[in-house]
Write a structure and sequence with these properties.
Elements lengths: L7 H4 E5 L6 H4 E2 L1 H6 L6 E5 L10 E2 L1 H9 L5 E3 L11 H12 L6 H4 L16 E4 L1 E2 L5 E4 L4 E2 L3 E6 L5 H8 L2 H10 L1 E2 L5 E2 L2 H5 L10 H13 L3 H17 L3 H18 L5
Helix pairs in contact: 8-12
Amino acid sequence: IAGKLNTVNHYCDSKPGIVTAANNFFIVNEETEKLYNLSEFVKPIIQKGFFVNGSVVFDKKEFKQIVSEGKPSKVLCISDEKVAELPLTVRNYLKIGVDLELPDRYKCSKRNNWFVVPNISIPPDGFFFRRIHHYPKLLKNKAKVLVTDTAYKIEMRSGYKINSLIYSFYNSLSLTFAELSGRYYGGGVLELTPQEFKNIPVPNVKVSQTVFEKYTAAFEKKEDITEILDNFDLQILNASLGLNKEEIERIKSIYGKLVSKRFRKKS
């Protein structure tokens, strides 16, 4: 069945997020940003998957919530060209990194200036967090923020939309292949490598903005991901593969058993 579907890589380009080499130093909270006058030298970023909520859209309101809670939310963005012009307060902050011996870390030592984080590009269309707990997190980046390498940056290919990819992704068949593709870690955590994520088969069900907004509302209200599968599996898998209700229930049962096995639960 899955052979009839295109994989994630057909719809989008996905790459690991930003590697700072020392998140605790290079990603600061609002208090530190103000204390060292870093505002001119930082950009908004999501550091960890558990900072985002149970939605499929990450917007500016949710980012402001992270900032207000004092979580690290801005990444230091200094260019090599600006090094000579850095204010004293910024240099004072960099001294903290020197005291922590960050310049000696392997990745930092390979840079022209140890504190210039490379590959900081524009915010992606969306992001997929590589470590999975109860279900995979694939989000639209409405807040236009950057993301660390805890996630894969999603850039849609020509002719495809992030709304439709997200809507189509959350079905029992695609989630089953995510479970089969990744590897388990302690506490039931599942992790997908970049290639494993790219190879997940996903239907292509195009949705309007209105439909996606209703879908987003349903996703936010869910108690469990199975509610989404119960409500949308038939629409997605029937439209894309012609599967009937009985066939879909069998796939959903397999998915449930795989998740239970991951958490070492008895089915």
